[in-house]
Structures are given as structure tokens and as C-alpha cells.
Amino acid sequence: MKDLNYQLMKLCRANRDGSFSTQATRKSILNRIANQLHELGYKHMQAKSLKPKHVEALVSLWKDQNLSVGTLKNLLSGLRWWAKHVGKSDIIPKDNDAFDIGKRSQVAKESKAWELKEAQLEKISDPYVRLSLRLQPAFGLRREEAIKFRPNYAVKDDHINLKDSWTKGGRARTVPILSDEQRSLLNEVKAFAKGGALIPANKNYEKQLHRYERQVRDAGIKNPHGLRHAYAQQRFEELTGFKAPLAGGPNRSALSKEERALDEKARAVISKELGHDRTAITRTYLGR
């Protein structure tokens, strides 16, 4: 491991702010940044030697790579975290407009939803990971929620409870149990977990997350978050009787007054089930 990579990982270990998922993502981003700085010619950097010229070189590289606005924002967030924890917050503008990286649209143009195939599951050798993956489209769970899922706590008569320590932003929520398929999967998870979470006894969340990422990658699954999109689109059709725009359904402008009312009500329900506090985010999953 190069010096800068090592020092940034040490900085992460000493400053464990955010959820386990946030910490793991931050480590990945900082490791990527350290490698890019090395490739840019800054081969003997120390964590405390970050300067404006390094920031400018990185942003220029990212723009040349035609990265999405969302990816650019995530990379800059990691860079700001690094600067803050070495006492150099002032070297990076707080407003992303200073870098002219554009705005991220909340209205998706293409669906990211996809169906989990049996052939893909067969490539997952870890049974904990396999069950976590199956929970994601069944209940619209994020990766962290599906890994930390503890059925003895979560499963109730007609819904599941998601604990605040499992969820993004610490927002506890419930998701309804509406089908025999969901109930059957929960029974399977409960029998397998034996009172625990979907994490082996000899691993913590961070280690199981790394195993999840590795197994998913090796199985050729590029976007596990798309399983959450699939849940949202399925629920929309259940609640309205017609498909979401991104799933081939009509745009809002083509809906009748009654259909618009159904659309709005469904989006409010889905937003809550996905753990968001505003319905506008559903445009990312459903379109508009």
C-alpha cells in the first residue's frame, strides 16, 4: 500500500463518523483518490500535504472522464472530508458551483430497475449474501438494511420494522408484508439467521459488507440498488393499477384527474416505504 493510501485509511479509522455504510464508501472513495493522485504524478504525498493544486488536478481529471454529476459530488464530498480532518477545509470551495459540475436531476430518464435471476443467485456462494440480495427487491431495502436485517426483531404480523441503526439517516420505518412470497422469504431468513442478523458470527458489518460487494461483483451484478427501483415500480403498479412512467406507463401529463390523484397517493406511500421524507425523490425510481 502506498503511503498516502495508508495514511488516509488511518485517518478513516481514527474518525469513524457516519454509518458503517458511509464509512465503507468513504474509504473506497479516498483510496480511489489516492491512487489517482499517484497516477497524476504526486507520488510522495502525505495526508497533511493536500493543496489546492491537488484538488484542481483531481477535478480536471474527473471532468475528462465524463463522470456523472452524482459521482462528482460523491468524490468531492470525500475530498472535503479529507481536507476537514487535516485542518484544511478552506482549500476547497463549499459550493460545487465553483467547479462548474452542473446539477443532478432528480427525474430519471431511464429505468434502473432489474429483476434478480436465479442464475445470478447461483453464482453467490455466501448464503448470507444470497438472502440479503433477495430481501432487497422483496421489501425495497438498501444494502445496509438487508445485511443488518434481524428477523426476530423485524418481522411482525403484517409488516417488517427497520431499526434506526440499520437505515440511512437513522430513520426507522415499516414496510408492509403483502404477499405469500414475502412471508415465505421471511420464514426462510428467520430459520437461517437463528436469532441474529444476516452477518456470520465471526464477522462484523464492515467485513460482511466487503464480502457482499465482492460476491455481487463476481456474480456480474453491477447495480444492486436497482433491486430497490424494481420494488418501487412494482408497488406503484399495485397501488395505481397502471405502470410507472419509467416502466413503460403514461407520463403525468397523460393522466386523468382521478389517475393523478392515485399517482400522488402512491408516490407518498412508496416514498415512506423506501425511507425518504419527500415524494419528489420517487421521480428517480418511477419517472414523472
Explain this structure to me?
54% of the residues lie in helices and 3% in strands. The protein has 13 helices and 2 strands, in the order ααααααααββααααα. The model has no long low-confidence stretch (mean pLDDT 92). The chain has a two-stranded antiparallel sheet with strand order 1-2.
Mean of all residue-level pLDDT scores: 92
The strand order across the widest sheet is 1-2
Largest sheet: 2 strands, antiparallel
- State the distance separating the first and last CA atoms: 46 Å
Shape: globular
Helical fraction: 40-55%
**N to C succession of SSEs:** HHHHHHHHEEHHHHH
**Uncertain spans, ≥5 residues at pLDDT below 50?**
none
Structural class, from secondary structure content? mainly alpha
Q: How many β-strand runs?
A: 2
Q: Which radius of gyration do the C-alpha atoms yield?
A: 21 Å
Q: How much β-strand is present in the residues?
A: under 5%
- Number of H/I helices: 13
